[in-house]
Amino acid sequence: MVGKKSIFIVEDEPDILELIAINLEKSGYFVRKFMTASDLFSNLKKSVPDLILLDIMLPDNDGVEVCKTLNKSPDYSSIPIILVTAKSDELDIVLGLEIGADDYITKPFSVRELVARVKAVLRRGEKDSIPGKEIMFGEILKIIPEKFDVFVFEKKINLTTTEFQILRMLAEKPGWVFSREKILSILWNDEKDVFDRTVDVHIKNLRDKLGKAGCLISNIRGVGYKFDPEEKDNG
User: Fold this and answer.
1) Is 47 exposed, middle or buried (0-12, 13-18, 19+ CB in 10 A)?
2) Residues 6 or more apart from 224 whose CB is under 8 A from it?
3) What is the pTM of this model?
4) Mean pLDDT across the chain
5) Contact 198, 97 (CB under 8 A)
6) Residue pLDDT, tens place only, 207-234
7) What fold characterizes domain 6-124?
């Protein structure tokens, strides 16, 4: 399976599990299927996938708790996660994003949409073919694109692939204002219809993880966000 991206699917409904697996395999991915959270964790000890499709409603654990556990682990926190849920309420979706998921998809979904979202999330996690220039702002912040590393006051912090790409996007053009629509368009490649709050949640998570350096990201009310090295107090 050399060269193929690997995807772990965790879904307790056999028909849906098989449908997802068949279509991802047709799209060129190596797939492993699990029906419980315990099976997932057992196999993570043997191999780490490029992405996890995680159903929220599992027989032995809550998918949200599984996502939290993965994001707290230094071994697994870098794995992109797409939550699969029958809950389409905005609050449920926001909760999923707040606990570290990179994206979500609600049942029922089209196969085309599912594959498009998988491609979009994996694309965010790809290393640059040409090493990107390091981005530095004094001792406060250092970004190394080709390694996906971020340091705040020389301490490395762990970001999801989506958080990293948002930070890089803003930091590469300090002072530029990016609308929520623009950020969505760049990261999701116009492949899905999401509400603007998706960006707000990722930005909130990013600023929290950046700690003292979080003030570098300014909220331009009613417009979007910008990276401002001169900003000291943001709303």
Assistant:
1) exposed
2) 177, 178, 179, 180, 181, 182, 183, 199
3) 0.71
4) 85
5) yes
6) 999 999 999 999 988 888 999 887 644 4
7) Rossmann fold (3.40.50)
Where do we find the tokens 């003030």? 215
CATH 1.10.10.10: does it fit domain 135-227? Answer: yes
Residue 28 DSSP symbol: T
For residue 177 the two structure tokens come to 């204002």
d(CA 216, CA 225): 10
Domain ranges of the chain: 6-124, 135-227
What pLDDT sits at residue 218?
Answer: 92
| Cα–Cα dist 209/167, whole Å | 11
Task: Decide if 34 contacts 9 (C-beta within 8 A).
Answer: yes
Q: What Cα–Cα distance (Å) separates residue 96 from each residue in 40, 116, 154, 198?
A: 19, 19, 30, 10
CA distance 16 to 160: 27
Residue 89: predicted pLDDT: 67
Strand 6-10, strand 30-34: pairing: parallel
Burial (Cβ within 10 Å: 0-12, 13-18, ≥19) of residue 23: middle
H or E element, residue 146: none
